Amino acid sequence: MDGLPYEILHLIIGHPSCKYLVLEVYNDAINKALFQKSWQQTCLVLLPKTGDLTSLSNWRPISLINTDCKVFTRIMNSRIMSISSKLITRFQSGFMHNRFIGDHGFACRLIMEDASKSTSISESLGVMLDQTKAYDRIHPEYLCKVLNRFGFPNKFIKYIHDLFFGNSIFVNVNGSLSDSIQQLQGLRQGDSISPILKI
């Protein structure tokens, strides 16, 4: 939305007279849950999937947020990721450091091979679950309760809530922005912190 490339933000952060101001902005965000108003604005771009493109289900929404907000959510994501292996089951490998999602595929293959050798093949059952619109379905109250249950501080929960819910979304249609739509639930696809919050 701001059109500020990372290279320019990097120059601003690196400039002696600006870096302390930038640091103060991020510290206020972390310590006081004070955000720039622009951090609560999202530009939604639709990317085509496959199939009939006249159907909205064949488009993937990607949230574009301001560069300075992306830096902040990356800071928050790195803090969560530093403790995530203590909180999240070892059977979750997607979006987790030092875990390989291919291990699950290999384990499933071994189980299927073993089941096919079983004399009572009719008793074997396999189930694959895939939640559609998984990011869109995250409810703010549920997310806050989960974060609270895992022991995250109330201040952290508040800024996650305030960053994601009640935002203004502008849909980019052929280069023009729509009127704003209020985001009442769901996580932003394209934001670095969304996958770990979804897990």
TrEMBL record:
PANTHER family: REVERSE TRANSCRIPTASES. InterPro entries: DNA/RNA_pol_sf, RT_dom. Residues 28-199 form the Reverse transcriptase domain. It comes from Rhizopus delemar. Signal peptide: none annotated. Coiled coil: none annotated. It holds the Pfam family RVT_1. This is Reverse transcriptase domain-containing protein.
